[in-house]
Design brief:
With 392 residues, the protein is an alpha/beta fold. The chain has a domain at 79-297: Aspartate Aminotransferase, domain 2. The protein is built from 13 helices and 15 strands. The chain has helices at 3-14, 47-50, 59-71, 82-94, 106-121, 140-144, 169-175, 199-212, 263-266, 282-297, 300-317, 344-353, 375-389, and strands spanning 26-30, 33-36, 41-44, 99-103, 127-131, 161-164, 180-185, 215-219, 243-246, 257-261, 324-330, 333-338, 355-356, 358-360, 364-367. The strands form three sheets. Strands 4-10-9-8-7-5-6 form a seven-stranded mixed beta sheet, sandwiched between helices. The chain has a four-stranded mixed beta sheet with strand order 1-2-3-13. A four-stranded antiparallel beta sheet has the order 11-12-15-14, with helices on one face. Strand 1 and strand 2 form a beta hairpin. The protein starts with a helix and ends with a helix. The mean pLDDT is 98. Bound molecules: pyridoxal-5'-phosphate.
């Protein structure tokens, strides 16, 4: 039996089967290349669901981990530590005046944002408005803001969550009122099919929150940390939230989540209101701060914009252009809606060919490589995608 098969068998024997899996055991990664247990290589155009924003084993992140691991791993949040401050300063420089809180995941950051909105809204504001086809995570609060099949079987969910269609301002107008604690929304929906709303919609949400006193929460878990060609997705439309959530790329592949909130909201989290034992731990936050430094130093926001254009150009001129119903997204956050109800065969063929992409909503391919991917490797990946699309 191959080494890979042995690992699969041991996995199945001991690990809960809550993920649908591809039959591949990944053992090593560098940049935008991964290798499996049989030595086969893959071009990675999905970057660990967006986590490895600088690619695998980026030398600066490796150096940062090594240095920090020799200094300090974990002390708990009753102490001050410098890497956590360094990360907060990096976020401030990349965004708006605010205060941060750190945890490990996107779902936890949604929990923190929802709690902060409720406590800062006072006792008469409980309602949270979220969007159909939105995705905010699997914990019960985040799940309550995530309508659809993900909720099935998990009721009762957290009360007072209301769901309305995305990119439909009048639907929000009908439900927002003086009892609304927050509107939570992705600047671009990812799981929901890579849906880009109109700038007027996002600006309209801001205006509704200003009129009613509700908090505007942007879920920047996918769109944050440079993926869209700006540090945060909301910066494309020039609308600032009261609270934003972060995850995925924030840790460059380590588990780091967090929120960033305007000071008048942030001040409602006092000792005892919220916490996370390992949140903000020195190794994770040192790496996370370094992610921002490398993006700035290597001009990777421009690279995200250029890379996105290269992908779109390639798709529009490919032999499969007629099979593409729509191309959506910004920067290196691209969704390709195929003209078929189910594109699973393309995904399967991609893996056989040595290409890692993702499929959401059954027919929307997600192409979200590391911002460090070279032009040549992106081109190579897109040529493999052409071959995979021959399956259509
Ligand atoms: C927009 C968005 N928010 C939140 C989450 C939850 O993040 P995590 O899986 O780290 O809990 C996800 C996960 O895919 C996401 O896409």
């Amino acid at each position: 039996m191959s080494v890979a098969q042995q690992i699969v068998d041991r996995h199945v024997r001991h690990i809960i089967g809550n993920y649908s899996k591809l039959p591949v055991v990944i053992t090593r990664g560098r940049g935008s290349t991964l290798w499996d247990a049989d030595g086969k290589s893959y071009i990675d155009l999905f970057a660990g669901f967006g986590g490895t924003i600088l690619g695998h084993a980026h030398p600066d992140l490796v150096k940062t981990i090594q240095l920090q691991a020799q200094m300090l791993w974990q002390v708990g949040n009753q102490f001050y530590t410098e890497p956590q401050v360094r990360l907060a300063e990096a976020i401030r420089q990349a965004s708006f005046e605010g205060r941060g809180f750190f945890c490990h995941s996107g779902a936890e950051s949604a929990e923190a944002a929802i709690k902060l909105a409720r406590i800062s809204g006072g006792p008469n504001r409980k309602k949270i408005i979220s969007m159909q086809k939105g995705f905010h995570g699997r914990t019960l609060g985040a799940l309550s803001a995530t309508p659809g099949p993900a909720q099935q079987g998990f009721d009762p969910l957290v009360p007072d969550f209301v769901h309305v269609p995305y990119n439909d301002l009048s639907a929000v107008e009908q439900v927002v009122d003086e009892h609304t604690a927050a509107i939570i929304v992705e600047p671009i929906q990812s799981e929901g099919g890579m849906n880009v709303p109109s700038p007027q919609y996002i600006a309209g949400l801001r205006a509704l929150c200003d009129q009613t006193g509700a908090a505007l929460i942007f879920d920047e878990v996918w769109t944050g940390i440079g993926r869209t060609g700006k540090f945060f997705g909301h910066q494309h439309v020039g609308v600032t939230p009261d609270i934003m959530t972060m995850g995925k790329a924030l840790g460059g592949g380590l588990p780091v989540g967090g929120i960033w909130a305007v000071p008048q909201r942030a001040s409602f989290f006092k000792p005892g209101t919220h916490g996370c034992t390992l949140g903000g731990n020195p190794i994770c936050t040192a790496v996370s701060a370094e992610v921002f430094s490398v993006i700035n130093r290597d001009n990777l926001l421009s690279r995200a914009n250029e890379g996105g254009k290269e992908i779109v150009r390639h798709l529009q001129s490919s032999r499969h252009a007629s099979k593409i119903a729509d191309i959506r997204g910004r920067g290196l956050f691209i969704g390709v809606q195929l003209d078929t109800p189910d594109a699973t065969a393309v995904l399967q063929r991609s893996i056989e060919l040595g290409l890692i992409i993702n499929l959401t909503q059954k027919n929307v391919l997600r192409i979200c490589p590391a911002l460090t991917i070279s032009e040549a490797q992106l081109q190579q990946g897109m040529e493999l995608l052409d071959q995979a699309m021959d399956k259509l």
